[in-house]
Amino acid sequence: MRLRNVKGSREIIATNDYVIHEEDEIKGHWHEFFGNDNPIHIEIGMGKGQFIMELAERNPNVNYIGIEKYSSVLVRAIEKREQKKDMDNLYFIRMDAEYIENVFDTHEVDRIYLNFSDPWPKDRHAKRRLTSTHFLAFYDKILVPSGRVIFKTDNIDLFNFSLEQIPEAGWIIENYTNDLHHSEYNEGNIMTEYEAKFSAMGTPINRLVAYREK
Ligand code: SAM
Q1: Is 3 a residue whose pLDDT tops 80?
Q2: In what order do the strands lie in the sheet with 63-68?
């Protein structure tokens, strides 16, 4: 993602009510934070938040947390979130997913969405890909036993890498498609910003669902 430094974004984030500031302290207490026992779904690398905003609106009985590394991007999601003040099931965290275990306890998350994650094409950066065995080990801890990782990307190299890494980490691929928009899995699909951009250019969208046997 091309990053433009948005002036004052750090200050906006520091004082915004939809951004969680002491996330480490909420670890193990997310249901108390939301004040209900609804499932918790997170999106890692949510960008400007189009996808998770739409999901949260459609599913008021699910708690959503959008995670984004960069302030300049997160601030755009906050602008959208501010338009939906009556919604009480969506919050954001500015953090690098590398530290996700500091924020969620064992079996605290029901679903993880990864949408158009950065491909990190160089071999030496493979560990940074959000579908690497390195990250799958984190997801293994924080997801409930029946939890799912749902991953979409335009990038076929990253997708093929993921199809290899998932079984290597001991996970199972429940289903996958190399052309989501022309597949049986497209029903109810919510497009992300990147998805809209790539599909408008005619690029097929890859999607997979993964789980582990517990
Ligand atoms: N998910 C959005 C979409 O599909 O439109 C944005 C996709 S964009 C290519 C990837 C986003 O993931 C960027 O906003 C980037 O800052 C964020 N990101 C990448 N690595 C991350 C990490 N380790 N932790 C948190 N966010 C990350």
Answers
A1: no
A2: 90-94, 63-68, 40-44, 109-115, 143-153, 206-211, 172-177
Residue 104 has pLDDT above 90, yes or no: yes
Considering the domain architecture, whether residues 114 and 209 belong to the same structural domain is answered as yes
Question: Structural domain of residue 131, as residue ranges?
Answer: 106-214
Task: Let me know if 118 is a catalytic residue.
Answer: yes
Whole-structure pTM value: 0.96
In this structure, the answer to whether residues 130 and 165 fall within a common structural domain is: yes
120 lines ligand 1 (CB under 6 A): no
Q: Distance from the CA of 165 to the center of ligand 1, in angstroms?
A: 19
Separation CA 92–CA 68 (nearest Å): 8
Displacement of CA 127 from its chain's centroid (Å) = 17
Q: Are residues 80 and 118 in the same domain?
A: no
d(CA 74, CA 67): 8
Quick check: CB of 1 below 6 Å from ligand 1?
yes
Tens-place pLDDT, residues 106-131: 999 999 999 999 999 999 999 999 99
Whether residues 120 and 212 share a domain: the answer is yes
Question: 190 burial class (0-12, 13-18, 19+ CB within 10 angstroms)?
Answer: middle
Residue with tokens 């002036």: 7
pLDDT at 5: 72
Of all atoms in ligand 1, which is nearest to the CA of residue 195? 4
Q: What does the pLDDT look like over 60-81, one tens digit per residue?
A: 999 999 999 999 999 999 999 9
- Domain match, 57 and 89 both: yes
The dihedral formed by the CA atoms of 159, 161, 163 and 167, expressed in degrees to the nearest 10? -150
